Amino acid sequence: MTTDPKTWSQRFESALHPAIARFNASISFDIELIEYDITGSVAHATMLAKTGIISAAEGEQLVAGLEQIRLEYQQGFFKPGVEAEDVHFAVEKRLTEITGDVGKKLHTARSRNDQVGTDTRLYLRAEIAKIRHQLREFQYVLLSIAEQNVETLIPGYTHLQRAQPLSLAHHLLAYFEMADRDWERLGDVSKRVNISPLGSGALAGTTFPIDRHFTAELLQFEGVYANSLDGVSDRDFAIEFLAAASLIMVHLSRLAEEIILWSTQEFGFITLKDSCATGSSIMPQKKNPDVPELVRGKTGRVFGHLQGMLVLMKGLPLAYNKDLQDDKEALFDSVKTVKACLEAMAVLMSEGIVFNGDRLAAAVAEDFSNATDVADYLAARGVPFREAYNLVGKVVKTCIVGGKLLKDLSIEEWKALHPQFESDIYDAIAPRQVVAARNSYGGTGFEQVRKAIAEAHERLGH
Ligand code: ARG
After folding, report:
1. Active site positions, annotated
2. DSSP per position, 184-195
3. 320 lines ligand 1 (CB under 6 A)
């Protein structure tokens, strides 16, 4: 297995060592870019003809040949091996087989450096659109569950200690908001992905009268790189994407962690449905949350790719360096991981879990998560909050010692603690009221949650 010596200029006398050829080649992974490579080349060939750099007939032959390769690939007939080195050479070589000498004109006024940058951006632009669509679907799933659970209560935690009860919808809508930012962020990243480096040449531009704005327009780029050196060596857009992908994974992983906790016997807030859970090969009683665990686990890969890309870039002198070939696996794997995790989490949330209503209702009724409401009760009646807070702290302590909850105190006991207490204290500390009362903007009060749901529908456009 040697690289075809004709690949390189006459300067080379012998072929590559097979091990080096394998090491140098990117075809095993950059084949993923083939359709974008063809699309980019079609635009380039069209531009060469339009500017008179090649004839109109030659332009047509190149475009027809490129489209034939696209078909051959789609039908499974075009499978270039390591001898092609990379997808760009593979396509050019096949084009020359199909069109003869005219194929050799395709690479006029272009370098693989601006070519690979173009391909990668076209790929990422398309993948970002798909991921954004998936984010919207995921948000829709969260919103649907939220809608059905406005009045379902769930303990809210800080420090993983029971803090204040919440509307389950409010809890789920927090993830809706995270996904919304992810959607926005990817839209923002897209703006910088969508700039054309094509026509930057190897690094310095070209001697031919090309029209970079024309190719950019054909490829629906929003603009062109203003500096050819920057054009061929910038990978900020890839790093920005990996950062955005990492945040998506942070959010999915946090939800995954909660699902895992909620499904434990200790919490018991949800039951995993058989369609989304797995068993143990030895312990027949087990039902494992493999899906959220995998999501949590895969998060590390995406973070790793972000770190890898940052380190890959930090020491690179201008302009193109072969190190840049290594951006692709990081990108491809991150794209695949994010898409797979979004899909799995959307299915898990929509079909894989059942909230255990009784268990949740019992959970919010059996703790001191209404203690703030006792303090608020006094504060609303003129007692300075800090004073009320201290008093309630003492009450909680007494209750714990006596094995009681706040709701178990008699009205006489309340009155003895502070004369401001009246019998409406019982309503004030009932879990439902505790939640309903938090009616500040963005709070968990049912009225606020209903508004948030309506507003979320608007954002999704329905
Ligand atoms: N396969 C290469 C890459 O992915 C294409 C660009 C090669 N450029 C070069 N000057 N060797 O980066």
Report:
1. 159, 280
2. HHHHHHHHHHSE
3. yes
